[in-house]
Amino acid sequence: MTASTPAPEAPEAPIPSPNRGDTAVSIAGQMARSGFRRGDLAELRRMDVDAPGPAVFWRLMAENELLGRGTVLESKWALILHGIALMTPTGGEDNASRSAHNGLMPVGRALFLGDETTRQTAFYSESRLNRLLTARGPILRTLLARMFRMLAAAGVSFNWREMAQFILNDNYDEDAAEMSRRRIARNYYQTQRRAAQSNDT
Questions:
Q1: Domain contains 12
Q2: The pTM is what?
């Protein structure tokens, strides 16, 4: 390398924010409140998560002190905010029923049950789950965006603390990401097993 040749830039690594799961839950609460503008919610739902542009995205990022941590992390938060917006119902007056976050509903269980409390066959198929849990990077982002739309159409909510950690740890902290994948699979198949036992009974 000559003196005039610039050294290649190191790849940008996301810096995790403290209590990042709690931040996602807080944002879900913001979106569920009656004072949150419907137009802002619509913009977050339409947003291109790879090139976020709506002012509401940047405003939420600034309010939650998530700016200045790199474009990789900004893109991950764009996906999180997009998913929360999609899964936030726009009808009803009860804030709790309007939130995309349900701390008592693990992601894996929600994927199996969908919009039912009991189910014999999975709402989110086993083949889809397998693709989701083996995907990384851009493919994972695409599959998650599709999954959010599918769950939103059925009015499903789940634990956004768990989902945010799953998204943020992808290609950053592999041990934590693997723990998230195992947690989703464990809850999905435990729910499947209980459904099968109920059917046998």
A1: no
A2: 0.87
